[in-house]
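Homework help board

Subject: predicted structure for assignment chain

Our instructor gave us this sequence and asked us to write out the predicted structure in token form, then describe one feature. I got the tokens but I'm not sure how to describe them. Can anyone check?
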Amino acid sequence: METEELKFMQDKYVEMKGGIAKTTTILHEYGGSVKEKYHIGYPLEGAVRSSLAQFRNCIHRDLNLKRAIKSYYIADAMFSNSSVSFTSHPLMNFELILNEIKALSELNHPNIIRLYDVYFDSKYIHLVTDFCKGGELFELLYQDHLSVDDSLGIYIQIIEAIKYIHSKEYCHRGLCIENIMFSDNDKKKVKIIGFSGAIKINGPIRYKYGSPMYMAPEVFQDNYTELCDEWSAGVIYFTMVAGHQPFQSSNFNQLSKRVQNRDFIRSENWKALPKLVKKFLKKILEIKNRPSAQKILEMPLIKKYQKENNKQAIKKLMRTIKSIKPESNFSQKIKLSNKIKIAVYKILSPLNILHDLNGLEGLWNELDVEGSDMLMESNIVNNIEKVLNKQELSHRAHQIIKKFDLDKRGCVTKDEFIGMLCDLTDRNLLMQAFNILDFDCNGIISPADFDVYFKCTDYENLTKLMQEANGTTLLDYESFSLLVTKFVIN
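My token output:
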């Protein structure tokens, strides 16, 4: 029997669906079963989140892709102050669940957890998302100590995500180490979760929300803006480099006082930090003149880190190609692999879901000092020497052309360079690219599909290359995936 609360939630769900802009998230009709599309697996352990929802892994039945499912129990719904809350978790209300769904449906960024499907029935609301196999930042800090550089690499990804969130006129409000996940086992690629408190920015926000130890001073005063997210990120960075949180107290009022006075703990770990790091922390944790995410990304510490990272990446790139001789030719198989990989990059790049895109664009900009979006064999050696400030490894620089110039034109374009270097091993991304190319949805792509999508003039050459390299001009998903992932320039 349908309760008054359930009818209220159904109406709100339909209203929310109608208000969401174009999205790749599938918001299923009420009553749809998650088990039709996914095989539900074992529970996932988490620090504190399981008190609000149940987390399990799941497998897409058709695509065999591993994902996570977050299930909110709603059968015990009850009206409370013109909204619906739940007996089993009174801190959660239905409005917060809808906030999370709406925000994740409209936000699309490589450092934000991706929402694929939403199911709603009389007992549960299920959110199917990315599976973050690297676990939580909370767990990493509990088990290990992070270096200053590793901490900064994580922090930059958080700030990049905040910049994007704010550009879409959202404020997260719930950033903390428990809401930072890693999509990879190396714990390098960040995914932000915890969007139930995310709201649209429409003037000052007038009520408290968030984890107290990460709340900005103005949040305690019930009068704040989206810059509260930059403060929370600063607390996360402080926690990573110092090994403890900057503001601590078991008493809420005492904690509020310490935060509003910026009275952070100056431990021995703090004192041992480099001066530039301490100066940076003080700046990003300013009360009145706190920099925005965009301004933070322009600060000297960030620029220095990115510059050094680019230099190391260029050196590594030089070393990886040292065995290639000038007269070496790519096999047709390798040439086809890279052609398709570049095509996949061009398809996915506008969707803002490729994880290492910012870093690779920074690397390209270091090499392309003229800003021409093309590297010529005649100038690449000089460009390498300018970046490294010495001739070390630059004698190999001309080999970049040999490595990336698939059509022997004596140059390499930005799309070719980034397309061949970007990480395209994520099966979710590959499946999305394949489905975009598969116009007639028959599970097969051909040169004609590339021709339709790219409106290219290279149809005959691609047909010939696919026939010579693969023995056929038709590719199913497995063949397509193998070609894209088989040849990878590290």
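Reply (TA_rk): Your tokens look well-formed. For the description, you could write something like this. The chain has three domains: 4-130, 135-298, 329-355+423-490. That's the kind of observation they're looking for.
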